[in-house]
Amino acid sequence: MAFLDGSSPDRLCKPIVEHIESLGVQVRLTSRIQKIALKKDGHARNFLLSDGNIIKGNAYVFTIIADILKLLLPEEWKPIPYFNKLDKLFCVPVINVHICCWSGTYYLSAFA
């Protein structure tokens, strides 16, 4: 196990995003997917975001809570064995609390 010499967003996430973007890939953070639209062949055509924007691409990678993915999953994908396994996946709420101390100053952050 190792420690970062700074915050996770700055020392871990930011370099990953910068590398991905250097390859010509668009990275969008805090974009909420409202619907996955499909082509006639069943592949993803685009993502409709809750702000009305449409994301089109050749390939898509996104992070999402499994319970939300179950709600967004197009009906056509539900019988596919890869996605069918989601039915057996149960999510539980997780709360992380980080308490750090530097030079006698305490920092508290909580993530739910």
Automatic annotation (TrEMBL):
GO terms for biological process: carotenoid biosynthetic process. InterPro entries: Amino_oxidase (IPR002937), Zeta_carotene_desat/Oxidored (IPR050464). Residues 6-100 form the Amine oxidase domain. One of its GO terms (cellular component) is chloroplast thylakoid. Pfam families: Amino_oxidase. It comes from the Eukaryota. GO terms for molecular function: phytoene dehydrogenase activity. This is Phytoene desaturase. It comes from Artemisia annua.
